[in-house]
Structure formats: structure tokens, C-alpha cells
Specification:
Blueprint: H1 3-15, H2 18-25, H3 29-43, E1 48-50, E2 55-57, H4 59-87, E3 91-97, H5 100-116, E4 120-126, H6 134-137, E5 143-147, E6 155-164, E7 166-171, H7 200-206, H8 226-234, E8 240-243, H9 246-249, E9 255-259, E10 266-273, H10 279-290
Parallel strand pairs: 3-4, 3-5
Antiparallel strand pairs: 1-2, 5-10, 6-10, 7-8, 7-9
Helix pairs in contact: 1-2, 1-3, 1-4, 2-3, 5-10
Length: 305
């Protein structure tokens, strides 16, 4: 006797009415009748006395009900316990981020996640901007919040959580520092400091070689870490694009953040290994989505003209 057939028998034994049994189980009365007849044929005994006015258990039906009830209840309790365990994650989840403002959102989401899954722990990982994919690929990170695009066959792109206006970091003594905005065409007039070791499609978007009209953008020194970019710009070696929010986190007297008036915003989204698309990861993704509200768009920031 299959589990569904046991369920039909036990509900009918309780209700003693084919219609009410069908309603409780969301099936038709005919389905209930077919199941009972199948059970009776298999057992070689009548389980119910049926008339046009009533349905009653036979003595064998009573005996079967008593024997099945305890076992069925145990099965239901075991299934419920397994489902609850599946929703309650344990162990450590390693969550990476690139920019400091991404880290703020990750920490906020972690509070939500730990409330929902108190037996889990979160380890935060801050990665250098020149190596965003290796930690995911070598198993040292379960998911991360980072600048997009990421277009790799072994990496899953989750939702874009927020976007930020793009700005240009310029030396405080550079003429651009006196402007209220800059244009992508202005990049042809100054050396551009870029980060190395990123995928080419990422570099083409964030550190282009030509302006929209086709003018060549000169290259300045390259950098492998964010602090190197700040040092090079502050020393007057060139300019570098970033999120306008960076002005709040990395205000320096030798650097000014000037908003672009015609550049696309910087997108930030979640990524994780295709081989690690686990319920644990998906639960944290949901926590990130739920925690997205506190991250407000940047207003006027220190050092921005």
C-alpha cells in the first residue's frame, strides 16, 4: 500500500464520508473510492460498510486503522523534521566583497541570515580588485558581492543589487578638480590608471582605451590594489574611474571625485561558483535582497566638486 493510499484510508476512516475525505485531500470522490477498492482487493477483505446513507468501518478496517495510525504519524513527523532541517543551515558560509560599501551591505545581510539560520556562521572576506574570481574558483569563497560585469561559464551571476553613479578620481591639483562634472571624452586628455589582471571585458568597460568618439585614452601606471590606485592618483600620475560612493570612504586631501555626466552607472551584483549553487547560498542571496534597502544612493561627498 502506497503512502498516498494509506493517507486516503486513514482520512476516510476518520471522516466516514467520501465527499469530505476528497475535500480534505484535494482529490475527487471517485479517486477516494478507487483507492479503497484497490486496498480491499489487495487485502482480500472489506474495510468499509457502505450504504446510500452511511459509511462505517468493518472490524478489519478498525484493526487496520489502529495499526496504520501510529506508523503514519511517525512518517509525517520524520518528514516534517527533515524539511525543517533542510531549512536550518549549519556550518560556515564564506562571503566575499570587493568595495567597502559592498562590505557594509554584506554585514547587514549576515545579520538577517543569522536570525533565520542561527546555527550558521558567516566569515567575511575582502578581496583585492585585481583578483575577483580565483577565490570563487579555488573553493575559498562561497559567494561574493562585486562590481560587474562577470561573464564566466563556471560562475553564476545572481541579481544586481544596486547601481552607483560613476565618478573620476583626479589629483587635487589637476584642472578637472575644479569642474562640477566630467565627460567620457575628457579621458583623452589625461593618463588613465587601470587595474591589472581583470578579465578583458571588465577592463574594456571600466578602463576603456578609446572615448565614445574614438579618441585614444592615454595609459598611466597600472595598479594591482585599490590603495595603489589612490596613491598614484594622489601623486598626480593620472586619473581613474570609480563609484562616486568612494568619496565617502576614501576622502583624501590630494584627491577629488568628480561625477561623470555621461557614463553608465557601476553595477554591483552577487556571483558564486556554478558548482556551489546550494540552498545555503541561495538563502544568503535572499537575505541580501531583503537587506538591500539600507544602502542609499550617495549624496554630496567629501572631496567631490
Amino acid at each position: 500500500m502506497e503512502l498516498r493510499e494509506i493517507e486516503i484510508f486513514l482520512v476516510l476512516a476518520e471522516e466516514l464520508h467520501f465527499g469530505r475525505t476528497a475535500d480534505r485531500l484535494h482529490v475527487t470522490p471517485a479517486r477516494v473510492s478507487q483507492a479503497v477498492k484497490k486496498q480491499e482487493r489487495a487485502l482480500g477483505a472489506e474495510l468499509f460498510k457502505r450504504t446510500s446513507r452511511s459509511v462505517q468501518l468493518t472490524s478489519i478496517g478498525v484493526q487496520l486503522k489502529e495499526g496504520l495510525s501510529t506508523g503514519y504519524q511517525q512518517i509525517q513527523e520524520s518528514l516534517a523534521a527533515a524539511a525543517a532541517a533542510g531549512r536550518t543551515f549549519t556550518g560556515e558560509l564564506r562571503v566575499g566583497y570587493s568595495a567597502a560599501w559592498c562590505g557594509n551591505l554584506v554585514v547587514t545581510a549576515a545579520d538577517t541570515f543569522r536570525t533565520r539560520h542561527p546555527h550558521s556562521t558567516i566569515r567575511f572576506l575582502n578581496f583585492q580588485m585585481d583578483d575577483p574570481l580565483t577565490p570563487l574558483r579555488d573553493g575559498n569563497c562561497d559567494l561574493q558581492l562585486t562590481e560587474l560585469p562577470i561573464d564566466e561559464p563556471d560562475i553564476v551571476n545572481g541579481p544586481v543589487l544596486f547601481t552607483e553613479p560613476r565618478a573620476l578620481m583626479v589629483p587635487a591639483a589637476q584642472p578637472f578638480a575644479e569642474r562640477s562634472t566630467v565627460s567620457l571624452e575628457d579621458l583623452a586628455e589625461v593618463p588613465l590608471i587601470a587595474v591589472t589582471n581583470q578579465p578583458q571585458y571588465f577592463l574594456d568597460l571600466h578602463y576603456p582605451h578609446r572615448t565614445p568618439s574614438g579618441r585614444t585614452i592615454p595609459r598611466g601606471p597600472s595598479a594591482t590594489a585599490w590603495q595603489d590606485v589612490l596613491a598614484l592618483v594622489g601623486a598626480g600620475k593620472g586619473v581613474s574611474p570609480t563609484s562616486l560612493r568612494a568619496a565617502r570612504y576614501y576622502s583624501r586631501p590630494d584627491i577629488v571625485y568628480v561625477p561623470f555626466r555621461d557614463a553608465p552607472p557601476v553595477q554591483y551584483g552577487l556571483t558564486w561558483p556554478a558548482s556551489g549553487n546550494t540552498p545555503h547560498v541561495r538563502a544568503f542571496v535572499q537575505a541580501m535582497l531583503d537587506a538591500g534597502g539600507p544602502l542609499q544612493p550617495p549624496g554630496p561627498a567629501a572631496g567631490a566638486k
